Amino acid sequence: MITKLGVLLLFMGLSACAKILQPQVAEEQDVIQLGLEKHGLMAWYAVRFSILWEKETEPQWYMGTLIAGEVISPLLEQSRQQVVYWRVHRRAVHDKTGHVFSFIFYSSQADAALIYQHFKNNKVLTKLQQQQLLSGVSYDALYNNSQTNIADTSDPLWPEKIRSSWPFFIMGASQMWLEQIRAFKKQTLNESDIKQRYIIIQNNLTDLWQQQGQHALMHHLNALYAYQPVLVRF
To answer: Where are the domains of the chain?
Structure first.
């Protein structure tokens, strides 16, 4: 027979579990609301780095990795509370836009202005441009920004449920990738040439992706969706 003390202890235990497991559903909205109260309307902004790409050659993929490790990583360490969502994006197509590495983030207009200034004052970016490895840096307009909803920079062809939730996924993936860069940086401290250092880091990232990406990423993403068949296009 369970005693009154046993019942009380059992109830306290269940209460403690309930308290620990209680989901914090409103956490992200609280962050957004705090930003609205402090600085006003929040929106998506982007900084785009145009990378030199000669015809008949492979894109210099290490350049995006270098910018992430030397420019974006320090920014996020200093200003993470000012950025609600963020991600990086790569593209390399032989067209008018060419090879571009982008940092896309969701913040207030005031914080976006400070983040832009961080990039404009960055010595690494200045050096890359002087060495003609980086052909230019462009910034989204701070004013008249209509991309105020979380889904606004997702692919417009996706259904709304994907568009509004995808920023959570891609930010996590970008954070994982950035943490791997930081780890590989510690292993290349003896390499004084920054270009060669990031060529090594990019090669390490490629090896990690090719050897571990299927199980660590593809398999577990598939598991979230109950191992159901998926249409894949390339």
So the answer is: 27-224
